[in-house]
Structures are given as structure tokens and as C-alpha cells.
Amino acid sequence: MFESVTVDTTIGELCTKKELEPFSKYFFTNMTEDVWNRKIGDYGNERCGLLPAIKRIYEVMEVKSQIIYDVYPNEEWDTEPDKEQVKLIHMPGDPDKPFVLVCPGGGYAREWVLVEGYPIAEQLNRMGYSAFILIYRTGQKKLLPKPLNDIAAALKFLADHKNEFQIRMEGYAMAGFSAGGHLAAVWGIKEKGYEAYGLNKPAALFLGYPSISTVQFLKDMERATDSERAAAVKYLERIGGEHFTKEDLAEYSVEYHMDQDYPPCYLVHSKDDPVVNIEASCVMQERLKQFNIMNRVRFMEQGGHSFGLGNGTELDGWLADAVRFWERCGNFN
């Protein structure tokens, strides 16, 4: 049971606990051996709120017989096998409220659900809101727009089952981190996101250290070390394809596609982020001001990347602040 989970428990040990077997693929997707062998504490237990999040999983399992849902019908898996990857993990809050769709990051290669999924959901549940963690398609070159299709399919699935989940579709929010923040930010572009799929605009976006500017990422790659450049190339190939150009990347570089219809935005980032240059968030901040979009932008000096909830940092409590921002934007409380 939960009491046997500590900061010294390895990710592999967590995944092989019998009661957590359904979640074994969904702590870190596309698991690699180095992740499997690392301890929970290595991922910033206190800063990211990992043990409370795992405890919340146990609590939900006690009251719900099903937590993980297929987004696409099984018959679609035959023609598009990668659709089998796409799941929704339901972490319930109070009934008859809007919900938050959470998109963890992972460079479009995987999803760090333990760091940027369950802890976010656990905190939202404490505030009375249901959270649905989206496991979207990853690990392919020129991946987009498949993850956008996955968001659309997930929202349609939720609309079809809103009574079962006891949620309101009106006023939903989206939270995304790193590459998941890029994905959520692209969903806010009406020509590529919500409007293109015939769906409602989110009432707010919560974006944590989002890689919103693929063009900025390209600039940073050109002056990076060899090892950093190799990782950046793989990331950009997942967006623009194997022989990507600046023009390919600009198609999904959020700052080029924003307008006055962009959703209200709550943006957090650290100035010392070694993975996603804060300059991208500064550009987004300028665009939000330019188009007079409701926003709250919070930067901190030191926090690095993947700080999640940011407990004990300058941004401690940012998610509760973001929820208050969402409530004002959605005017539903």
C-alpha cells in the first residue's frame, strides 16, 4: 500500500507494485532504463509534490473502479495503431464544476506524468476541481498535428461522458508543461487548435516553462554544445520533420499565430531554465500585452526546468493563484 512508498523507492519498484500495475506505463511513458532505476526523490519530491500525488492515486483507486480511459475507439487502432497510446487519467474533484485537462511535458518523446501530471491533478482535486491527464501521442518525427487531434478527441470523449464524470464542459482550462505547454499553447491558436476542431475555447491556459517558440529553440540550438544540440535536434525533428527548416518550425511557433482571440493565459517560468530559454516566454508575454489578452506572468530567478508545482521556490503556490485567475476569467465561481 501507499505506506510502502518512500523517496527511496525507485521508479521501477513503483511500477511493479501490484496495486499500481495499471499505472506502470503512465508514470513516465516510453520508459527508459535510466528512469526505471532512479529514485522518486531524484525527481524533486518536495518541490514537485510526488508522494502526495501517489497517495492521491491510492485514494482514487479506493472509490473508482476505472481511472484510465481509452480516448479513441478500439476499432481505430487497427488503421492507426499509435492511437492506442492515447489515454485519459481521471482524478475526480467535486461534481458539476469545470475541469482541467493536463498535458505533461517530455520533449514530445515521452510524458513525465509523475512530475507534471499527478501532482497537478492532486492539487486541483484539493481545490475541488477534476483533472484529466492526457497521454498524447509522442516519439515520432513530424508528430504534429497528432497530439492536437488527441486533445480534440479527448474533449469530445469528455463531452460524451460528462454526466458519468460529473463535469461541466463550459469553462474548462488546460495546463501544460514544457513540450506539453507548447501543445496547450498551440491549442489556444484558433486556426490550429480549438476553433479548427469545432470546439470551445478554453477559459484559461496554465503554461509552465512552455517551449512555445520553436524558432527560439532553433536559435538556442545553433549556439549550444554538441550534446545539447543533439537533444535539441531530436526535439525539433518531432515538430518539423527530419529535414526541418525555420519555416517548418514557424508553423507551430506560437508567437507567430496569436491574436486577440487567444485564451487568457497564466504563465510561469524560471530565468535559469537550462532546457527552455525564458526568452520564449518573454516573447509570449509581449504578445499577450500586444493583443490585450488577460494574463498573469510570473518569472523566478532560480528554479531550473521541470519544477512542476514549485513548492518551496519563489513560485510556491502558483497553481492556486492560477486557479483563482481561471475562476475570474471563466466567471463561474
UniProtKB/TrEMBL annotation:
Pfam families: BD-FAE (PF20434). Residues 97-288 form the BD-FAE-like domain. SUPFAM superfamilies: alpha/beta-Hydrolases. Transmembrane segments: none annotated. InterPro entries: AB_hydrolase_fold, BD-FAE-like_dom, GDXG_lipolytic_enzyme. Keywords: Hydrolase. GO terms for molecular function: hydrolase activity. Gene3D superfamilies: alpha/beta hydrolase (3.40.50.1820). It comes from the Bacteria. This is Alpha/beta hydrolase.
